[in-house]
Automatic annotation (TrEMBL):
Record's signal peptide: 1-28
Keywords of the record: Hydrolase, Signal
InterPro entries: Cell_wall_metabolism_enzyme (IPR050570), Dup_hybrid_motif (IPR011055), M23ase_b-sheet_dom (IPR016047)
Compositional bias per record (Basic and acidic residues), positions renumbered to this chain: 30-50, 196-205, 240-254, 287-308
Name under which the protein is recorded: Murein DD-endopeptidase MepM/ murein hydrolase activator NlpD
Pro residues: compositionally biased ranges: 315-333
Amino acid sequence: MAARHARTLVSAALSVCLLGGVVTYASADPDPKQQKEHVEEKLSDARGDLQETSADLVEAHDALEKTRGKLPAARSKAEQAAAAEVSAQSEYDDAVAAHEVAQANEHKAEKELRTTSTRISRARKEVGGFAGQVYQRDGIGTMKVAVGSEDPSDFIDKMIMAESVGETQGAALQDLSTSRANLVSTGDRLQALREQTKQAKETKEGALASAQEASSAADAAQADLESLEDDQSSQAAALERAKKKDTKRVESLQAESDKLTKILEERARQARIREAEIRKARKAQERREAEARERAEQQRRERERASRESAPSAPSAPAPKPAPPKPAPPKPAPSSGVLSAPSSAPVSSQFGYRYHPILHYSRLHAGRDYAASCGTAVRAAASGTVISAGVAGGYGNQLVIDHGVKRGTSLATTYNHLQRFAVSGGHVERGQVIGYVGTTGTSTGCHLHFETRENGTPVDPRRWL
């Protein structure tokens, strides 16, 4: 009973431990195509999360989820075993009671049999005594005794005695016959009761074996459940350690990102200053050129006026018609994007904030992941200057290209987790191989983490591609 109570408490405790949140997904848009695109984007984000999560964290999380998946079946098995144990114990108790009743009936019948045997033995002695007495006296019946009497009084006394002896002998014989019949009946009943007792004993022994087997099964199921609980506790502790370790890596990655942001912000500030100086110089040059043109035009008009004044009068000729304006040059076709994709591999994760399924907090995926295999070439998204090529904490091998001012903002791109570099500085052209895909830094698999930064701040690369 104490073991069953302990198992019940452990099962209830495990039920509390396993309470977890349920994530549901509902789309407000009934269009199946849009739903599929939304699901694909969610799947892409989840794959990106997995790429950025440490291998230890993924392993600990998977082990914990597998253990949690086994616990309901183990708990159900333990509960079934405990119920079987209770049922088997009840059957055993009933069998013990039936066996005790059968034994009591058997003992009662044995006592009755002994009593009947005693009565038969006594009746046999009495009959034998009467028969010997009569035989020793005369060896004849009642009438012979009466005829041999010497006088009427003696005759009457002998007749009365003979009849009394006969009646007593008859009663003894009747009792002997009844006792013999009872003996046979009691013997038959005792045999049946002994068979019943034997069957009750066998039933009790079978029920006992079943109860012992059920108890052993319940103990084994409970042991399995407790072992799983221990595994879950150890795996949860391992997951917690891995989460702390991975959180530190994320913080390191964020620190590197912040450091890069400051560098690019300073470069963007300097680029804006240079751009302003260039615009100022260009405006000054345009102003000087306009003033020069104005002076040249003034001089031309003065020469024409002097020439007309010195020439003889003549009929005035009509002023020449102004030349038709030249057609404006055709506008260039709109570009598909300032940047081109750095890899032809499929995108495994997009830019954006999302809730991490293991770390359980929202975090920014500051770029776009391309699921390319290690060693695949990485190309420059646009022409620019390499301003950094080296190890950058959680980013691993990182290459940064400054593309100058685009659309009024300073634009830079970063290429992270590279296996190795193809360039380390200088100017690069759009589409030029600059490195090769790897899995350095905080990464659990080969992929390219590509970022675009406006004035140092990470933005969605799709705005520029």
